[in-house]
Amino acid sequence: MVGIRPLKKIWLDGRLVDWDDARIHVLTHGLHYGYAVFEGIRCHDTPKGPAIFRLPEHNDRFLNSAKIYRMKIPYNRSELDQACIDLVRANGIPETYLRPIAFSGYGEMGLDPTKSAIQVAVINWVWGAYLGDGVDQGIRATVSSWMRMDSRSLPPQAKCAANYANSALAKMQAVSSGYDEAILLNGSGMVAEGPGENIFRVMKDVVSTPPASSGILRGITRDSVIQFLKDEHLTFHRTDFTREELFTSDELFYTGSAAGVMPIREVDGRPIGTGSYPITKRLRLRYEAAIHGKAPEYESWLTYTR
Ligand SMILES: Cc1ncc(COP(=O)(O)O)c(C=O)c1O
What we know:
Blueprint: E1 9-12, E2 15-18, H1 29-33, E3 36-38, E4 41-44, E5 51-53, H2 55-68, H3 77-91, E6 96-104, E7 118-125, E8 139-143, H4 163-176, E9 181-185, E10 191-193, E11 198-203, E12 206-209, H5 220-231, E13 235-238, H6 243-247, E14 251-256, E15 260-267, E16 270-271, H7 278-291, E17 302-304
Parallel strand pairs: 8-9, 8-15, 12-13
Antiparallel strand pairs: 1-2, 1-7, 3-6, 4-5, 4-6, 5-17, 6-7, 9-10, 11-12, 11-14, 14-15, 15-16
Helix pairs in contact: 2-3
The chain binds pyridoxal-5'-phosphate.
Pyridoxal-5'-phosphate binds at residues 40, 193, 196-198, 217, 219-222, 255-257.
């Protein structure tokens, strides 16, 4: 059942330890109560060696997630950036997914997390296309009956482990109904996002994505795609849309560090557009060029690790 191939090292609480020695106690507080914040970042091979995509932005979001939860991470942004770089170098694999995580450790039980020390780890592993190889034909999505949690209960803009229980419910429902991925609506019935992706809609050459106020994570891939849309001179709006506007879209696609830029070919049995995704393809090509160091205009988004 183990799907992850062990690499050599894991960064744990300030030092690189052997993969098998990165262990935590079963009474780790964050394991019981979901008090953990994390990031998901990709490192890709480029002509100048392995490069981490938008590393400072990811670690800024990591620190902001912690701030929302009053969690004191004992490292600053540049120390976290360096931890990621050191880990990529130590494991020597050019293309990996990086997972910084901070959590309340083994100390006290009970619902006040401030009584347990905060532990921080960065792990990387080889992780292929998260939503499978559906890039050419697109994937099949379903609107979930689970509502995206609301910022008055669990703030979606903090990438907190607890949020992913909501994501897991939606994901399991989608997969057990024969779909590849879920689309979650918010408490107002408007489209919010996928369990681990943002969503975009194309209608008559106008591209839109739900605004941050719709209860989404502000995705870094989403932000990159918004820049691509400007560079492609396409009309773009941050605006809410409904479930039925999903069905009538010319194109739909997910964005995320794990998923990349992924076309959606069907929602709940309705084919989307004509099944060719001219705008999604253009954006995807830009994204692939950017992450692989083949687009000089986006080179400032890369942190080289050599
Ligand atoms: C709920 C959710 N929405 C959107 C995204 C996409 O964010 P990003 O592009 O920064 O990976 C993610 C992934 O982190 C996510 O978990």
